[in-house]
Amino acid sequence: MSRPDDRSDRMSLDDFEDLLADKPHDETWELIGGRVVRMMTGARWEHHFIVQNINFALSSHLRAKASPCRVFTEAFRLKVRSQETSVVPDVMVHCGPLPPGASSLDAPTVLVEVMSDGSIGRDRGEKWQVYRKIASLRHYVLVERDKPVIEVFDRTGEAPFKERMIEGLDAVLELSALDVAIPLAEIYRDVLSA
């Protein structure tokens, strides 16, 4: 089995998991549709604040509603075996039980990616090609890091995804599958000023 060191190598999910065992813990690697990608480490503070704000807002709303949905951030893997994919979304919401000791899931309800110049192509391209085929997914949320703009892809039932744009700190991100509404001012708190 070859050991990839660049971004162009392809492999199966099983081989990728073997590869991860040999990599240092401070490196982040993803497998997107069979393509191995070494991820950037040390994202900008704005990225981390946005992820924390989304996590806090979603977790607070879901707990208040006694929802069975749980929020996972940046260290929990999404694995889609049928698409040879193992990725680490910025924010992921899963509704329903998880097996004890799980370190990944395969049936998210919501996926959120905070986009940077280096990730925008993957987030809108390769990852979206994988994510749109996940039957459980109801909302794919793409968050601009440097301005209050959010692109959302929504699906109800078996219908195709529909795209919508949300702009401005006065706008609200509504996620109907979770019965949650989050003001963009909360998402960008301490990152962008009004």
Description:
There is one protein chain. With 194 residues, the chain is of the alpha+beta class. It has a single domain, classed as tt1808, chain A, CATH 3.90.1570.10. Helix content is 23%, strand content 31%. It has a 6-stranded mixed beta sheet. A 3-stranded mixed beta sheet has the order 5-4-7, with no helix packed on it. A hairpin with a 7-residue loop joins β10 and β11. The longest helix has 20 residues, at 45-64. It is globular, with a radius of gyration of 17 Å. Residues 1-7 have low confidence and may be disordered. InterPro entries: Nuclease_put_TT1808, Restrct_endonuc-II-like, Uma2. It comes from Lichenibacterium ramalinae. This is Uma2 family endonuclease. Keywords: Endonuclease, Hydrolase, Nuclease. Residues 14-166 form the Putative restriction endonuclease domain.
Distance between the terminal alpha carbons, to the nearest Å? 53 Å
- State the name of the first-level CATH class: Alpha Beta
**Portion in beta strands:** 25-35%
In DSSP terms (H or I, runs of 4 or more residues), the helix count works out at: 5
* Helix fraction bin: 10-25%
CATH architecture: Alpha-Beta Complex
Secondary-structure content class: alpha+beta
Superfamily (CATH H level) name: tt1808, chain A
- CATH topology (fold) name: tt1808, chain A
Question: What would you call the shape?
Answer: globular
- The average pLDDT value, as a whole number, equals 88
**Biggest sheet: strands, sense, closure?**
6 strands, mixed
Number of strands: 13
Rg, alpha carbons:
17 Å
Domain Putative restriction endonuclease: 14-166
Keywords: Endonuclease, Hydrolase, Nuclease
Pfam family, one: Uma2
Protein name: Uma2 family endonuclease
